[in-house]
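Case 219 in the screening queue. Each case pairs one protein sequence with one candidate compound; here the compound is pyridoxal-5'-phosphate. For every case the pipeline is the same: read the inputs, emit a complex structure as tokens, and attach any notable structural observations.

Predict complex for case 219.
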Amino acid sequence: MAIKDNLQEILTSIPKSVTLVAVSKTKPEKDIQEAYDAGQRVFGENKIQEMTQKWENLPKDIQWHMIGHVQTNKVKYMAEYVSLVHGVDSLKLLKEINKQAKKHHRIVDCLLQIHIAEEDTKFGLDESELKDLLGSETFGKLENIKVVGLMGMATFTDDKNQIRREFKHLKTQFDKLKATLPKIDTLSMGMSGDYLIAIEEGSTMIRIGSSIFGERNYN
Ligand SMILES: *Cc1c(COP(=O)(O)O)cnc(C)c1O
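Case 219 output:
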């Protein structure tokens, strides 16, 4: 099926209040242009250099979301244009984003990544690390970043109950955070395989790649 039809199908299956991030990592610019021509404006990438090249070549009203694990030394390449950083999992990284955003007189929106999966391979903060980060004196002084919510990835499994449980856990942390920080409004959870469950559990932002652009080739 064409990219345009895939997009349409997903958009009709989700509430209007949920933001669709089209995950275009590894995909060529012509695929992104096709989605853009169908009206999509929010795209997600997981490598800063790849995202920056695409940003340079594609329409400037695209909102670029960094959804992958961020290396501190690469933040400088995206600070000028990135619209949301999903995978922030340390104060050190937040400080670097703040520093680079300041050079461009910007305030960069960030999501803190929470570890909800059983797999150790996935990145993210646990509940006490989140608390420590938000409570730290340094965090309170960062003026060029804005934490707008949380992001998480469920375990890669066919067990729908487990996925739902992990999303519920993230939603609980999101609600707690929201009660203390009024700026919090974004809960990024759900991918091609689990976005309908994620939305049922309170997601406000889904990150969909293969169901829009087809399977990825990593060669
Ligand atoms: C690749 C990726 C996605 C999209 O995955 P699909 O299964 O292709 O929809 C979503 N979130 C993150 C963090 C990713 O790395």
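Case 219 observations:
- The chain has ten helices and eight strands.
- The chain has a mean pLDDT of 96.
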